């Protein structure tokens, strides 16, 4: 399973907006099929100072060891327009 949480925070780290995703669990033997999760915030409130980006994978088979979703090439892109 893969989970994603992105939060826009003010100077006091109060959440102004957020996006979360929990897509359908990725089957264990899927021949390395990759899935992409994207989101674009619009109408952003004044005062955003931080972006919190958290993502993680969890094994659904409860095996011992380090298993779960592979997370690669993650990024946050910020495009600011000066007024």
How would you describe what is shown here?
- One of its GO terms (biological process) is ERAD pathway.
- It holds the Pfam family FBA.
- This is F-box only protein 27-like.
- This protein is mainly β.
- Strands 2-1-3 form a 3-stranded antiparallel beta sheet, with no helix packed on it.
- The chain starts with a strand and ends in a 26-residue tail after the last strand.
- The chain contains no helices and 3 strands.
- It has strands spanning 2-9, 15-21, 50-57.
Identify the overall geometry: elongated
CATH class annotation: Mainly Beta
How would you characterize the largest beta sheet?
3 strands, antiparallel
CATH structural fold name: Jelly Rolls
Please give the domain count: 1
By secondary-structure content and strand pairing, the structural class works out as mainly beta
Distance between the termini: 41 Å
Weakly predicted, low-confidence segments: none
- Strand content bin: 25-35%
CATH superfamily: Galactose-binding domain-like
Tally of strands: 3
Domain FBA: 1-80
Protein name: F-box only protein 27-like
GO molecular function: ubiquitin protein ligase activity
Organism: Puma concolor (Mountain lion)
